[in-house]
Amino acid sequence: MTNRNMQQNEYPFNDLVDLNDLAGRLRQQNKKYQLIFAHNGIGKTRLSMAFKDLGKQDNSRDTLYFNAFTEDLFFWDNDLDNNTDRVLVLNDSSMFFAGIWELELDNRIRPLLQKYVSFDFRITKEKHRKEAGKEEIERWEVSFFRPDNLDENIKISRGEEHIFIWCFFLAILKLSLDKEEGSSYEWVKYVYIDDPISSLDDNYAVSVAHNLATWLKSYNGPIQFIISTHHGLFFNVLCNELDNASRYLLSKNTSNEYYFTQLKGDTASLYHVAMLKMLKDTLDNNEPLYPYHFNVLRNIMEKTANFHGLAGFKKCMELEDAGFYERLIPVLNHGGYSVFEPKEMLPENKENFEKVLRKLLNTYPFHSDLLPNSFKESQP
């Protein structure tokens, strides 16, 4: 897991002020691809919005983006009165849907969607009455159905809904990349994609990442791409596919000071080293530890076990009380804690956390250029 060619540095991001500052510097990099890894709650979505806002002047804009706000443009009407006519409603006031009819977006979405799911859909304009006695309004709706029953509107799963919205975005992205004459998306200079695979399993993550990377590699135009994610596998696939992309780790401390570490090297697994460094720096600087840090530690241990062909993360721990720690980590990892858990780790758990991390780093040492001042080196 060591590689003398890998290195970390924070230039030119080592004096960041806030996310707006970071968004401005990302624009200044003039890179075709920039990949960002960050855990949930750090500020990925806020960064994408700050980046987008910097490109807005009066009525003009330059960034096509996909994030949680994009998904909010789609919402369900589950027909609570009759429980039969379930449709996904589009917020037609958004410029995201510009050209939906003229450019026949449904016919562009369908072949993309069929790579992932077995259902079909139709997009229509329908008259709708919000309240009894009120005037009817026109709204844009998406109904879903199975090919063997065209008349039954079905409620698709959350994962399937996410795939549909992603394919909707891909259809618009393709229009932006192709620069078709008369396209409503000729203004796009940047594409910012934040976490396009939430609610999806690993198989979807690999497929979505591979298909997206294939598109981007085939594009030779001036548009620049920024992609951020909390999903390690998705990040790894993109790093492998887009081997010339700039890679970064976004993190912050308890004082809301941001760290933006540039990762360089010939392996997509380097971000695991960055995660280890983050955990160790937290201990070295006596910063608060939270239960979700155990989640990060277990993830690293699982990747370490897989790399060495060991039967599970437990094999990474040859401790005196191995049985206790084998029970402790799963409990703290799955105990209902989240990134937003406000309570600090209990002192005894912090001690246990440090013991496990110390043992891991001493058993599987990394190159000193990657992880300087290791526990082993600091011990008397």
Strand residue content: 15-25%
Largest sheet: number of strands, sense, barrel closure: 7 strands, mixed
CATH topology (level 3) name of the domain at 1-62 and 189-266? Rossmann fold
Q: Give helix % range.
A: 25-40%
Class from secondary-structure proportions: alpha/beta
Number of strands: 11
CATH second-level architecture of the domain at 1-62 and 189-266: 3-Layer(aba) Sandwich
Overall geometry? globular
The average pLDDT score comes to 78
Q: Span between N and C termini?
A: 26 Å
Number of helices: 12
Question: Briefly, what CATH class of the domain at 1-62 and 189-266?
Answer: Alpha Beta
Main β-sheet, spatial strand arrangement:
1-11-10-2-9-8-3
What can you see in these coordinates?
This protein has helices at 19-28, 44-54, 68-71, 105-113, 158-178, 202-218, 232-241, 270-284, 292-308, 322-333, 347-363, 375-378; strands at residues 7-9, 33-37, 63-66, 74-77, 87-90, 120-128, 137-145, 190-194, 224-229, 246-252, 258-264. It has 380 residues and is an alpha/beta fold. Among the domains are: 1-62 and 189-266, Rossmann fold (3-Layer(aba) Sandwich), CATH 3.40.50; 269-380, no CATH class. The strands form two sheets. Strands 1-11-10-2-9-8-3 form a seven-stranded mixed β-sheet, sandwiched between helices. The chain has a four-stranded antiparallel β-sheet with strand order 4-5-7-6, covered by helices on one side. Helix 1 crosses helix 2 (44-54), helix 8 (270-284) crosses helix 9 (292-308) and helix 9 crosses helix 10.
